[in-house]
Design brief:
Elements: H1 4-13, H2 19-28, H3 36-43, H4 46-56, H5 70-77, H6 79-93, E1 98-99, E2 104-105, H7 106-127, H8 131-139, H9 145-154, H10 156-164, H11 170-178, H12 182-193, H13 197-204, H14 214-232, H15 248-254, H16 258-275
Antiparallel strand pairs: 1-2
Length: about 280
């Protein structure tokens, strides 16, 4: 098994989020924040301006007049939506070419993270919660995989045995082979990136949401359900795809019926498709 020190070392080796990106995470979590800072960050970045123009002129804004400037894009999308796009670009920038241990391409992983972010945000709206911080929790829920993937790839035969012969879930296979799993390692990544505790806790417990501390349990349940729905929609399929379980208790916490889950998927698809297009280099 891999030592805890090895995982800690690998977490510290990940590219750092930039200072303005961490600032943005905190801004989006503060309902009283000065969001004009987001506009200033975007206007100083030509690549981000190009991505905003693409999204502002996408299917989300179908029927509206095309926009041609960063200011027009920000007005159309809104500052909080722009902030989420900046965060998506920040995550995309630190991804490796692939996550071999999960048989996932970088784009497949990013698409899954975006899908979970948007589905989690939609759940927050249904519950009347803080949509921005829930979006961020969904976006970063699998950050532990950035560290665990390499170790899984080196142990591929053992992982396959745990999945096929033993019938374990993928998280159980991680624990059997590595002595830990991507949800536990997420805490190391969160510490390295200086993320708020709420995001670290949501990532840690999104596969066992009812075990999360009470203050963050609803958020952990939302990320868990969003994660399951994203896989159901085929967004981010990996080698553990057939070994996933949706905790019915999480649906009870969120007061979700099967009809509500279907509606949630339908309402989120257009936004996911537009947002998940890879950022321009």
């Amino acid at each position: 098994m891999i030592s805890a020190n090895d995982f800690a070392r690998d977490a510290r080796a990940l590219p750092m989020l930039k200072g303005q990106e961490l600032q943005l995470i905190r801004l989006l979590d503060d309902p009283d924040a000065d969001l004009s800072i987001i506009g200033r960050l975007v206007k100083a970045d030509p690549t981000m301006t190009a991505n905003l123009l693409r999204l502002a002129n996408s299917v989300i804004a179908r029927g509206a007049q095309p926009v041609a400037t960063a200011h027009e894009a920000i007005v159309r999308l809104g500052l909080r939506q722009v902030g989420k796009i900046v965060l998506g670009k920040a995550l995309h920038a630190v991804l490796p070419a692939d996550l071999a241990g999960y048989a996932l391409s970088s784009e497949g992983f990013f698409r899954h993270c975006v899908a979970v972010a948007i589905l989690t945000e939609q759940l927050s709206k249904r519950l009347g919660g803080r949509t921005e911080s829930w979006f961020t929790a969904g976006l970063l829920h699998d950050m532990g995989k950035l560290v665990v993937s390499t170790h899984l790839a080196r142990s591929a035969p053992e992982v396959a045995h745990a999945l096929e012969a033993v019938g374990a879930t993928f998280v159980q296979a991680e624990r059997t082979v590595l002595g830990t799993d991507h949800t536990e390692v997420a805490g190391l990544v969160a510490r390295h990136w200086g993320l708020p505790d709420e995001l670290a806790i949501a990532a840690r417990w999104h596969h066992e949401p009812l075990e999360a501390p009470a203050p963050q349990r609803t958020l952990a349940c939302a990320v868990h359900v969003a994660d399951a729905l994203a896989h159901l929609l085929g967004m981010g399929a990996d080698q553990g795809e057939l070994r996933r379980e949706l905790d019915s208790g999480a649906c009870e916490v969120l007061r979700l019926t099967s009809t509500a889950l279907e509606d949630l998927c339908r309402e989120s698809l257009v936004a996911i498709e537009a947002f998940a297009a890879p950022p321009e280099p």
